[in-house]
Predict the 3D structure of the following.
Amino acid sequence: MADNTPAHLASHPLPTGERLIVTVGVMMAVLLQVLDTTIANVALPHMQASLSATQDTINWVLTSYIVASAIALPISGWLADRVGRKRLLLISVLMFTVASVLCATATSLTEMVAFRAFQGVGGAFIVPLAQATLFDINPREKHGQAMALFGGGVMIGPILGPVLGGWLTDNYNWRWVFLVNLPVGIVCWLLMARFMPKTETHERKFDMFGFVLLALALAGLQLFLDRGEQNDWLSSWEIRFELGLAIAASWMFVVHMTTAKQPLFERAMFIDRNFATSLLFMAVTGVLLLAGLALLPPLLQNMYGYSVLQSGYLTAPRGIGTLISMLVAGRLTGKIDARLLVGVGVLLMGVSLYMMTGFAIDQPSSPVITSGVVQGLGLGLIFVPLQTLAFETLATRLRTTGAALLNLSRNIGGSIGISIVSTQLVRMTQVAHADLAHNITEQTIPTMDPTVLQTVFPVAGPAALAYINMEVTRQALFIAYLDDFKLMMIVSFAVLPLLLLMRRGSKSDETPLVHSD
């Protein structure tokens, strides 16, 4: 049932001043949610000691948030139709802020995991609702700029998260990682409550069976990806069960989607060629964004000896490049073919990863900064026009659900990417170590001659073997990092043909808006 609002109000767009205020409030909400996907990572060792957790169990602080968010995300569209987008967004921000305070006051691991799951549910709805809102409050010609602003928050958040989290943890304590959300959440809620427009509500039957199947599939997949490496993948019965659950539930969900009268998502969404292709592209963007963020800070800290804050500063230029290219893409989208912008962005991503395959183990910081800027430029050119292309031919009433699926696709792509590069890092380190060690013998390195060793190694005799092995391991790990960058480079170039499946659309319908009281 629609809101009981006079028709003449529904047809008027937001004035420029109100649109600016709503944009500020919505982007504050986006930054809150996106920052919290990575801000807690650097604080985990401090949480582990404070909550008396083990190395294995403390990871549930991250896992609970990811799984809860993944399960809740797909029903964003149905809930927005049922209760209204404004009301749902206000509830989500309130839930997220309250959960953040609860996380800051947690005294046990059980409490922290429960509060993080609560926070994940609240945060799941924020990003798709914010994206759909920015589309609706802006005229069609400003959609590119709106997506540039939205993309800035989504792409910069994961980069700034570790820097802010490290600074708060070093200067205060880990609880401030969550407490910092309180003032931002309050201001954000007040701005949206006063100025955000209402949208129509619709009675829509909820596909409970489809939702349960999708929830089981997503939970199984996320647990499989998150816990696989530490449990040695398929050698663990837990991981086998989680993979089996993900496969079985996914298959049943696909069958249900194709046969149900009223499925969880409208089938027309996946027939839309632009939207379906964008889902695949967004998954690859998640791989390149989040997997890259998972690799670079450990490389800088373990190989080059930078601190957490220093490594955060060295990854910041990537964010600067992203902001620049998003501003450019926001101006160009609608003026030139968006597919061309995405193609240039993918090429820049590939070039930056090629540059990273040429890193040296004793290099200065300049190659890291240069490749980061190029990669940021590529990410921005991919994200903004890709969002516009995805919604170009999609019906307006499907925007919230479409935004939710795009964000879900990016998150799943990121989880898969992180798991693959992490597993490859371990495997390729072993392979490189074996190759290097094979060439080290008493004939190539005279380990038993102390006079020679003293000029090269600080120890002699049998102790030199341990020293040599440590250096070989360090070199092998560095080679494995370079192999991961090469793999990501191949993936980035491999998705270019997908652009041929996309086309320009022509759609002029707009969502009716209602001014807030």
